[in-house]
Each structure stands twice: as C-alpha cells, then as structure tokens.
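Supplementary Note 3. Input sequence used for the single-chain structure prediction.
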Amino acid sequence: MVVADCLQLSALREAKVIAGHEGLDQFVVTVSVLEYAKISSISDVLFLGNELILSAFISVKDSVEDQCEAIRRLHEMGEAGLVLYYVGCFLPEISKELIALADELAFPLIVMPENVLQHRYSEVITEVLEAIFEEKKKETYFVNNIMEIISRMPERQRTVDSVLRILSDRLRCSFCLFNREGEIQGLASWPMASKDIFQMVFEELKGQGYSKKKDVTAMEIEERKFHVYRKKFDTTGRKRLEIFALDEGGRLDGYGMEQVVEVLQMFGNIWSDVFCAENEDVLVKAILNNHPHMMKRLAVNYQIDLKKIRIMWVLKRKNGMGMQLDLMKLKSYLKEHQKRVIVDDVDDGVVAFMEDGAFWDMDMQLAECYMEQESDEDVILFCCGGMDSTQDVRKAYVMMENSFPMICKIFPKRRVFTEAQLRFTQECMRILAQGEEVVLEYQQVLLPLLGYKNTDELLKTLSIYYFDTECNVLQTANLLYLHESTIKYRLNKIRQRLGYDLDCMPAQYNLYLALALKRIT
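The predicted structure, written as discrete structure tokens, is reproduced below.
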C-alpha cells in the first residue's frame, strides 16, 4: 500500500491532496493519530515511519510556526503523509506556508472536506488497516517489501531497533537480537508498552542455553501463552548473532521466522557498518537515535561518562557528499590535542562528541585551526557546546539538519558555525514561514537606505560586513576588491542615513535579521 492507494478507499475519496504530490508513492504500513502536535511531543519512540498520520492540529491551530514544525518533524521521521480533519471548524484555514513546506518536502498533505464535523478518524483507520491486512494476507513473502521500506529510511534512522520495529509491527510479535557475548543489540516489543517485561524475559531465555532441536518452545508469562522462536545467523560484519521472537497470537511460523532472519542478514550485509564489531564510536549513533540500553552498555564497557560529553562537532559538505574519508583525520586531530573523543559517520557527515575544555575560547580555537587545515572549501563544521544531556545533543543535531541548507545561504563564507548561528537561522526560517507581509515588517529597518542610487552597494557592503567577515573592515574590502577607506566611507554613509551605530545592540541585531531575510528571499 502507498498513499495513492489509500486515497482510493471510500473513507478518503472526498479528501483532497493540496500539497506534496510527489510523495504519493510513499509506503503506508499503518495509521496513527497525532492529537497533540507540539513538536516536543512528537517522539521517535511513538512515530516510527511509513505511517499515515491523522490530525486536526487543534493544539496548534493558532500557530502556523508550530504547524510547520510538526510537518518537518513528521517528514524527518519518515512518515508517509498527513490527513487533516475539521479545517474550517477548529483549524481556521490551511496556510500557504504549510502548503509550500509540504511541497518542498514532498510530504503528502491531505485535507478532509472542510467545515464538516461528521468525518471520523475511525473510518479511515478501519479501511486503511483492513486494506493493509488484506495485502499482507496475499503477500506470504514479505522480505522485498520490508527491504524497500528500510532503503527509503534516513540513514541515521536505519538502525537495528528500527528494523526490528518494522518486523514487530508486520508480524505483531516481540523480537530481541543478541550478539555472541549475550548483549542485547536491538529490541522491539508487541505491544510497544511491554518493552521492559519482554526485555527481562528475553534475557532469561538467553541464559537457558540453545538446542537446534528446540527452535520453537511454548512458555507462559503472567498467564499469557507464547511460542518462543530463536535462530542463530551471521552477517558480513558480525558473526553468531541470535534472534528471539515471542509470538502470542499464533501469527508466526517457521517460514516467517526464516524471513525475519533473511531481512536481518540482508540488512547487515548491505549496511554492514550496523553489525560491525563494536567499538566506543558506535555510541555516537546510539545517542543520536536515542537507544538507552545501548548507550548504557557502551558507556559502561568503555568507561565513558556521558555527563561529561558537552561538545558536539558535526563535519559536513555543502554539496551533500559523504565525509567518511575525513573521519580518521578528525579523530586523529582531536586526539593529538588531548581530547577524549568518540567519532562516527552519520548521514552525510561526521559527528564527534568530546568533553569541553577549561575555557570555551580554547575549544573554538581548536575548531578554527582544524578548518584552516581543511583545503576543501565545501567542508563546514558545526561546533555545539553546553550539551548537558543526550536530549540536548539530539535537539542540536536535528536543528543542524533542519537549518543546514538555509544557514549556508545566510553565511556562505563562514566555515565554523556555533549553536548561536543555528538558532538565528531557525528564527529566520520561522519568520519566513509566516509569509511575505511578516518578512517585510522585519525589513522596515532598511527603509532609510532605500531609494538612493547607491542603495544596492550599501546593502551588499553591510551584508558582507556582518555575515562574511564578522564586522572586519579589511576583510570586507578584500572580498569586494575595494580599498579599506572605501568600505569605511560606505559604512559611515549607512550610519548617517540610519541615524545610529551599526555595531551596537539592539540596532545591530535588527539590521542583522533584516539583511539575513533579504539574503534568503
């Protein structure tokens, strides 16, 4: 089932696709309801990709910014699309900013008939799930379908836990994967809320030994009867893995378990780094993907105090090319400077975690020196400090991913970014999402500079002075191929027309924001 197939069902026949038409071929594996759409509530744990989301956006009905953030978050997690209910009843209207964002992300935005309260979530849930179940009955061999779903996932979400969750939702069983040392590599429970008890059960089963004659055994947990399946297998990067399955509804059989193993083997062979021999650097992905049991195990094994990890570096290329060759280079550089560091490649970049130094400016000098040695002008570095928890780390990483294209437009010459520039870029994106009228309001501070013959050269000079040289007159002159005195003359002319100092707050911030919006519109 893809989104386009769902639209042919009677419960969705009157719905209209108003944006994101290019994403109508996204797979749909289930339906979920998003009742509270504030970004803080949209958790990786609850929304796991390829779901058709139903919502009325009631909790964010008066905030276009929050609506756009919800769309970004759902798209980031790989959801299939959003069906909006009760437009005109609760949500006043669909903003053009929301439509533009959905089109940009190729994220299907589907609207039920407006000003109608009689449409029920349950109608769509029932029909879509029935159609999915009917397709599953016909599809006795599900490996190819699941591998296709995995291949479309963002790289950082392409983890063992995610694959086991897909298998768990497909077969409605609980799965647990162990390595040869008996450590849990991934866990997905059915139902999801039973994770803790099933983890204890799986660990107990692991300790009971293994016999090929007993691939399937019966057991009882809290008066519930289960069949336990277990299989050993190898992948390119890892030997002697063992998968356990707990089946309560009689939906799993030997053939299904063989397919589960086949999916895991193919996953491990294609994305071999997932099952490679573990080292402390694997902790990077565990933190970014919020795998607490893996974080705890790795931190204990390698004696890493997670509370001391307060700095994150992310190395990326503007052209989107991978950075794998730079991983060892970055790791060696940081170790040469006495940094206890864990480094791994994530998505199209390299992520490093480390402890902060005695002084903040020393860490920034370290970042600047590294980039001075980097000859590729496309390479940029994000340096985020003050990370007091792994949650702070994930928030900063998501902010970096969301802001990456826009921050390169605002600061095309900058090569080292801090969280301050990320937050400023997020603010620009927030204003931009509110439409042209709001943008023009923020740009009113530039009105005294408009209407003169030399307006363009003054605005260009001030933009380069602020964004490309950090208020350095000589560097501004070099970038414009002009004499230093010419730049001083232009900046003085700007001060005269504005009637205040360019380098004092809050005047500087207002100009800074207005010029940034001008650069990206």
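The mean pLDDT is 85. The two ends are 38 Å apart (CA to CA).
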